[in-house]
Amino acid sequence: HRGYYIRARAVDHCIRDFLLETQSHQRTQILSLGAGFDSLFFRLKDLGLLHRTVVYEVDFPGVARQKAALIRRTEELSALVGDPGAEGPGMVSTGGAGCSEEANVAPTFQRCCISHGAGGPSVVEFLLRTLPGRSDAVIQWAAERFSKPCFLLYEQMHPEDPFGHVMQRHFSRMNSALRSLAPYPDREAQQRRFLGKGWTACSIVDMNEFFTCCTPEEEQRRVQALEPFDEYEEWHLKCSHYFILAASKGMEPPWTPLMPRLTAPPGEGPVGAAGVVPAAACAGCSDTLGLRRYGHRSVLLKPNVVLTSGGFGEEDGQHGRVRSLHVLEKRGGRWKTAWVGKENPDTRWGELWQRFSWLRQFPSWVTFPCSMIFQTLTCPFPWLSFSTGEEYLFLYGGRSAKDPVLGDWCFLHIPELSSAAVPVEGAVPERRHSHGACGWEGGAVIAGGLGAAEKPLGSIFLLKEVDHGFRWQPVETHPPLVPRYSHTAHAHGGKLLLVGGVWLHSSSVPGVTVVDLKTGLCLDYTIDADHLEWPLMLHNHSSVLLPEEQELLVTGGGGNCFSFGTHLNPEPVSLSLSTILTGP
């Protein structure tokens, strides 16, 4: 719902701005190429915004006929259109060519009285992928043929990252390949494209930036409160792969309905890479279907043994909450997989299964206690060892059915997991969920997360032990940490490792970020996954640090990719950290 809403909101925003800026003109026109079943005209007409404006919609004849028939059958729509005429609501045949041939479209425009010359300003809204191979010609044609033209474009970008690969695969399966993506993969390329085709002004923002900067905060809160929502990663990834572009020629002042920030806030600019982390599928893994999951936890039970529990994925042929426990074991330098269950012939894990089979009786919370019981320093619920010898499990933040973001915490005493009152002083971190957390020097580290108003955070806090309890202490990073969430966190040798996640307003995807917890130095490393045969999505994943091997084992991850289908990482992946862990 949000994904389709943001497109309509962006187009409405720009068209209304056009009507406002041109209200002193006697006549303006809106030309929608590839209009489909868009209801823009009816929304504007119902609001009384078309007194001096004519709206023209162009599409293939079959689409236009279906839309005309739908309008005729709907009393409210027919009333807004007025006299439908002989062929339907403003419908004139192009002889079957749609808008793909100028030779056919031009006479139709003339018959419809569409002004090319000295008339008032015109705005052209276009779905460019409706004209594969001809989009550049259309952009140049509009700049040359109209007086004071404006152009509005909503399209995809960033085809080469993991989400982009899934997006391209979806459209290819629909026989609607995104042919403009390769030559124009990002915002800068699109701006050069329009300025090189005769347009004198061009502004462009991605849909994350449009929602946060061009949508009033009251409207943002209204949308966020409409329905229960937890697909934050999918929402932000989709919005980072679509843009809205507005170009103009001959308008004084230039038409600029999109007002992007001239400078990005700290931590949201381009990310420079300090190095590369190689990724490789774990050779020897088989029967990894049980690891195609997300929202789960993986922990190191003992050397060379990793347990994965909880999350969502496919089990017994159905998608839903995963109840099975899954074990990875390294034998002879290769990771092997083993199911944990009553049916498992490997009896070494039978006792383990019996100890936790009672969790299957509580489907509403099986994931939570399962992931908490097997705690190490690699999990989002750090294990704290006090100087007195007592051990606690520290739980911070999250969300609930009532509160979209929490900022409280609790200490669970080991082994009975009873809540304990432990004094904590210092400035309290901002409320958050989907953050990274791990243990460090008898305390804990929390990093990033999604805060209030669904905005990613870039802050890091230490929970340090003091004489009478703990104290919160912020970590100042330089350069500032790029805000992110849905990542994993590990601490080793004074370094904090943040793996994957989702961030906004950057042309790259998160890899591995290393923060020196003593000095605050922050370095970003890209992940080289070119050798993998599938897109590696590092959100909703789990990871285990193996310091002796100088590697990270990543399990699961991914999720729903808007309307493009679901992608879950099919195999465990090893990330080599030799450069990071041995560096200064």
Automatic annotation (TrEMBL):
Known pathway: tRNA modification; wybutosine-tRNA(Phe) biosynthesis
Single GO MF descriptor: tRNA methyltransferase activity
A Gene Ontology BP annotation from the UniProt entry: wybutosine biosynthetic process
Keywords: Methyltransferase, S-adenosyl-L-methionine, Transferase, tRNA processing
Coiled coil: none
Gene3D superfamilies xref list: Kelch-type beta propeller, Vaccinia Virus protein VP39
Catalyzed reactions per annotation: 7-[(3S)-3-amino-3-carboxypropyl]wyosine(37) in tRNA(Phe) + S-adenosyl-L-methionine = 7-[(3S)-(3-amino-3-methoxycarbonyl)propyl]wyosine(37) in tRNA(Phe) + S-adenosyl-L-homocysteine; 7-[(3S)-(3-amino-3-methoxycarbonyl)propyl]wyosine(37) in tRNA(Phe) + S-adenosyl-L-methionine + CO2 = wybutosine(37) in tRNA(Phe) + S-adenosyl-L-homocysteine + 2 H(+)
InterPro entries per record: Gal_Oxase/kelch_b-propeller, Kelch-typ_b-propeller, Ppm1/Ppm2/Tcmp, SAM-dependent_MTases_sf
Keyword Zinc tagged: no
UniProt xrefs under SUPFAM superfamilies: Galactose oxidase, central domain, S-adenosyl-L-methionine-dependent methyltransferases
Listed EC numbers: 2.1.1.290, 2.3.1.231
Pfam families hit by this protein: LCM
Family: Belongs to the methyltransferase superfamily. LCMT family.
Protein name as annotated: tRNA wybutosine-synthesizing protein 4
